[in-house]
Structure formats: structure tokens, C-alpha cells
Amino acid sequence: MTASISSNPETSDLAQLNADLESKSPIERVQWAVDTYGDRLVLSTSFGIQSAVMLHLVTRVRADIPVVFIDTGYLFPETYQFAEDLRQRLDLNLKIYTPRTTAAYQEALHGKRWEQDKEALEAYNTENKVEPMNRALQELGASAWLSGLRRSQASSRKELPVLKIQKRTSKIHPIIDLNDKDVYYYLKDNDLPYHPLWEKNYASVGDWHSSRPLEAGMEAEETRFNGVKRECGLHELSNNGDWQI
């Protein structure tokens, strides 16, 4: 069954539209996004711990959707291996974007910014993640994207709606209300893998220098950026109010 919502997100009552989407299943939300945005829609992935869920779910509805992957140059070897495994398994239309300058060039100029203060970390994230993603959206002609954020992942995500719009750019979270048990059964039922580092107790994986295994007494969000922050910049608003995926 597909979603029957036909409202235009740019002119509709956003609260009512979100109420309608909240009652839909994840695949109905994806279908609505595909029907609403067409070729202006992309899917982003980090090839993180549970990324196979969104990649499988979305490509069931639109097999050729552009899948944007930001390669910072600091990812775990296991992440690249996982990405290639899923690219082949799901026949992904993968679009890889990288920073404009290399990791070596950046470190020569700025040092290891993730070991410095919060301002340096923000600058690192902007250069290596936000700018490449914004460039991807522009080059792919996208005004909307699908993201696999879930409310149960972090305190910073507890209040996220299914649909968020900023300056006519839309972000859709089809699996926002799934919990870890739901994710486990989706992966199991569809014979999909977790990221390899799941077996080494990683609950969240990004750059190797800013991710660590989950330890006793820790929340999952504390395993990123030494607990200083949860978001890398891709899921926050910029200072000028623009969305950054």
C-alpha cells in the first residue's frame, strides 16, 4: 500500500502534513517522497552501522535514486568495504563526493582539528562533510533528500518530525520512529548486514578519529567526537539558517 498524501510541502500546513506522514509506514513515507519530489530527490548514506536498512528500503521504491556518500578520507577501512559490499548487493546508484582539499593538505595547514577546540572541530566538519554534501545537492539538482535519522539514536534527534523544511529545501526521515529492535528485525528479515564494526561494539561509526566503541555506562551518542557533540554538521542548521545534511 502506498501513501495517499498528495499535499505540496511548500504550500501545505506543515504540522498537518507531518501528522499525516507520522501515521504512515516507512515505505509509504518513501513512496510519498518519490511521488512528491521525483528527480529532485536524493538519498544520503554514511554506510554506518545500520545503513543497510535505508538503502534497501528506499531502493525498493526507486532503484536508481542517487545515493550520496561523503568520503572524508578518514573513514575506517571496514566502512569502504561495507560500502562496496552494499553497492554491489543492492546495485546502488552511488555518487561519491569528497572535500575540495585532501586530508594531508588540511592537516599541514590546520593540524588535527578534531583534537583542538570545538570551533576547530566545527570548521573540520564544515570543510569535510557539509560543503561536499551541499555541492552534491546542487550538482544533482536536488531540493529534497531522504535521511536515516531515528529519534532513538540521540537526545538531539528526539523531537525530529518525519518532514522538515527550511527555505524550500526538504529533509525526509522515513524511519524516524523505528527503534533498535525494529532495525534488527528489518535487517534479519531481509538478510542484510550490520556494519562490520558492530561486532567490535561500535554503536555509531563515522571518521576513525572521532568514533569509539561503546563502553559500559555510555550512551551511544557519547561514542562520537569524545562526547563533545553528537552531530557532525550534516544534520544541523547552519548559522545562516540553511539545512546541512
Summed up:
The chain is an alpha/beta fold. It contains seven helices and eight strands, in the order H-H-E-H-E-H-E-H-H-E-E-E-H-E-E. The two termini are 29 Å apart.
Please give the number of β-strands. Answer: 8
**The CATH C-level class name:** Alpha Beta
Q: Which structural category fits the helices and strands?
A: alpha/beta
Radius of gyration: 17 Å
The domain count comes to 1
Largest sheet: 6 strands, mixed
Q: Regions with pLDDT < 50 over 5+ consecutive residues?
A: 237-245
Give helix % range.
25-40%
The number of helical segments is 7
Describe this structure in words.
The chain has 245 residues and is of the alpha/beta class. It has one domain (14-244): Rossmann fold, CATH 3.40.50. Helices cover 35% and strands 12% of the residues. It has 7 helices and 8 strands; from the N terminus they run H-H-E-H-E-H-E-H-H-E-E-E-H-E-E. The chain has helices at residues 14-22, 26-37, 51-61, 77-90, 103-110, 118-139, 180-189, and strands at residues 41-45, 66-70, 93-97, 144-146, 163-166, 169-172, 236-237, 243-244. A 6-stranded mixed beta sheet has the order 3-2-1-4-6-5. Strand 5 (163-166) and strand 6 (169-172) form a beta hairpin. The chain is globular. The two termini are 29 Å apart.
Keywords for this entry:
Rossmann fold, two-stranded antiparallel ribbon, globular, disordered C terminus, 245 residues, six-stranded mixed sheet, alpha/beta
